[in-house]
Amino acid sequence: MSISTPFSSNGLTYQSSKSRSFKRHFSYHLISQVQVTTVPYAIPLPSVYLSKPKRFSKERFKLVTASATPTVETPKISFRGKNPKDVNVLVVGSTGYIGKFVVKELVKRGFNVTAIARERSGIRGKNSKEETLELLSGANVCFSDVTNLESLEKSIENLGMSVDVVVSCLASRSGGVKDSWLIDYEATKNSLLAGRKFGAAHFVLLSAICVQKPLLEFQRAKLKFEAELIEEAKKDKGFTYSIVRPTAFFKSLAGQVELVKDGKPYVMFGDGKLCACKPISEPDLASFITDCVSSQELINKILPIGGPGDALTPLEQGEMLFRLAGKEPKFLKVPIQIMDFAIGVLDFLVKIFPSLEDAAEFGKIGRYYAAESMLIWDPKTGEYDAEKTPSYGNDTLEEFFQRVLEEGMSGQELGEQTIF
Ligand SMILES: NC(=O)c1ccc[n+]([C@@H]2O[C@H](COP(=O)([O-])OP(=O)(O)OC[C@H]3O[C@@H](n4cnc5c(N)ncnc54)[C@H](OP(=O)(O)O)[C@@H]3O)[C@@H](O)[C@H]2O)c1
């Protein structure tokens, strides 16, 4: 969800950052180690992996039965052994904040990318077909409807190709109750089913670290899909997945940059230390997701991932902003109980006016991100653990804030919900 709502710990409007070139640093080894030692739910790697597209196996079966001479089945080579240009990657959610960077990175690494998009894409459908084609340049763009399995399958069939890997960056743009189930569960599942029908042997899912403590509908919808994806890989050893659970995106923390620049106070809940995160940039996350497409080391795992450096509380983010802006720090501390009160009122009103369901959900989303850290949750200690939250990439929030202070937020996307 680009929803600007969820990932702000400070409860204001969120915006995305501009694209640029980045140097990256990453060690699979490091991530694997962290994974094994810190993530109790990491799943062991299968030792052998062979893809077997259904479409092709049927054709081969026909050939074998038609021939009088016995033929020896040669095992299919995994797509991981192929040249990227021969690997067909289907991206759904390709026009989102992260999805478009994932498409760009996959194209850069030479994969044969097909991006599924809506005819009007982007926030409030602001992009025309032509703009979407421009946005996703380098990829084949297929206009289709991920919410309708039949039409999605038809669209893929019309492409006349098999699929090796599906990457899903789908997310409800609103975070509303029904939309979350429609997109974070159903449409994502449609992508799995359609991808499998045309041979997909691997599925990379962009999820969220917050699903480890699910209190919101979109988290429950994501978790349901995660469970079914894992089940699919258990049933078919030739199918694998990578579930990527990132911490906060930069855009989710940028809502107050302009305010601070204009001399306004930085607003935070409680003492500004109720939560923390290790923010990750969209190019760094896109790079990690692309690693998941072909790296054997990242299969059949749930992969929490943050950006470089220490975890930052809202107070630290505010202090950083004032320092970069060259202003005297000024904080407005809002008691978290105000949100609890508002949520209580909305929950009561929903019983009388069911149409307020989404408003109540947005209140809960705001409350969640005001108090819950976007870090690994340790159920044993009952605390979030920054040390155990793996880091990836080079881009820092400080550089991002500096850039936004200098260049402004113009041209950067606001999410659909800007409720706080
Ligand atoms: N924000 C954060 O800090 C944060 C942190 C960790 C994890 N996450 C997770 O990251 C994921 C992606 O976030 P994002 O910000 O990249 O999402 P986003 O910008 O909202 O993009 C959503 C994508 O899903 C597509 N989509 C939504 N509704 C659709 C519909 N009805 N039919 C077809 N396509 C639809 C959108 O297509 P259109 O362009 O056509 O609308 C877009 O491509 C989410 O699951 C989120 O929970 C976010």
From TrEMBL:
UniProtKB keywords: Chlorophyll biosynthesis, Chloroplast, NADP, Oxidoreductase, Plastid, Transit peptide
Enzyme Commission code: 1.3.1.75
Lineage summary: Eukaryota, Viridiplantae, Streptophyta, Embryophyta, Tracheophyta
Main localization (coarse): plastid
The organism of origin for this protein: Sesamum indicum (Oriental sesame)
Protein's recorded name: Divinyl chlorophyllide a 8-vinyl-reductase, chloroplastic
InterPro entries: DVR-like (IPR044201), NAD(P)-bd_dom (IPR016040), NAD(P)-bd_dom_sf (IPR036291)
GO MF, one example: 3,8-divinyl protochlorophyllide a 8-vinyl-reductase (NADPH) activity
Metabolic or biological pathway, per its Swiss-Prot or TrEMBL entry: Porphyrin-containing compound metabolism; chlorophyll biosynthesis
